[in-house]
Amino acid sequence: MKSTLDDSRIDEKTDSRPDYEALARDEIKDAVERLEKSFDASRAAISETLEEGRISAERLLRRGRDTAESYLDDATYQVKRNPGTAVALAFGAGAIAGALFGLVAPQVAKKRKA
Questions:
Q1: What's the domain count of the chain?
Q2: Using an 8 Å Cβ cutoff, are 79 and 86 in contact?
Q3: 21-37: string of b/e by CB count within 10 Å (b at 16+)?
Q4: How far is CA 65 from the centre of its chain?
């Protein structure tokens, strides 16, 4: 009497064992699909965030440029309205900057020599 356990050849048609290779292949395929979907979603979110950042930076640059132009226009108006005051202020600012530079420069030169 021959046992089915002794027979090394099992008929595949009557084999009741699950096909682990096919199950593993299906699981891997599902995992790859989930990864692709999450990658696509992440890529879309990153692209959207970058686009919003670019738009925000452009707005900020435009506001800064407008503000600088406004200050320049105001300064031009004040110089035309009070030229003597403008010259006196420019002279005073230059004198103060020159004095500070004259005080700081020798100290920096000493540190470089040491």
A1: 2
A2: yes
A3: eeeeeeeeeeeeeeeee
A4: 22
pLDDT tens, position by position, 53-78: 999 999 999 999 999 999 999 999 99
Q: Do 26 and 62 belong together in one domain? A: yes
Judge if 40 and 89 occupy the same domain.
Answer: no
Tell me whether residue 102 is in a domain.
Answer: yes
User: Has residue 13 been placed in a domain?
Assistant: no
pTM, whole model, 2 decimals? 0.48
Q: What count of Cα atoms within 13 Å lies in the side-chain half-sphere of residue 114?
A: 6
Per the CB < 8 A criterion, the answer to whether 78 and 86 are in contact is: yes
Q: What is the pLDDT of residues 98-114, one digit of tens each?
A: 999 988 888 888 888 76
Reading the block at residue 54, the tokens are 């670019």
Owner of token pair 């020159």: 98
